[in-house]
Amino acid sequence: MSNRLQVLVPPGLDARIRKAAQRGGLSKGEWVRRALERELSGERVAPDPLERLAALGGPTGDIEQMLAEIEAGRS
Per-residue pLDDT averaged across 60-72, rounded? Predict the structure, then answer.
């Protein structure tokens, strides 16, 4: 038998959970259950590389413009 646990999370965290669950082909509930099991068992998982890259706050923009700027810098 399972017990219900209700946890309130801010919208940003909910969106991150939803995206992570989608990437893994899981429901949000199953993703959260697995995350809790990993945390409680001490098992560590490498952080999502795309999230780490986005957290760097590097420059982004139109690819054609960025390539033109790179080429201009080589001249």
Answer: 89
pTM for the predicted model, two decimal places: 0.57
- 7: amino acid identity, one letter: V
CA gap 14, 35 in Å, rounded: 14
Q: Which two tokens stand for residue 1?
A: 């038998």
Question: Mean pLDDT, the chain, as a whole number?
Answer: 90
CA-based nearest residue to 31, from 49, 44, 18: 18
Cβ neighbours around 48 below 10 Å, total: 14
Exposure string over 8-42, b if 16+ CB within 10 A, otherwise e? eeeeeeeeebeebbeeeeeeeeebbeeeeeeeeee
Q: CA–CA separation, 39 vs 35, rounded Å?
A: 6
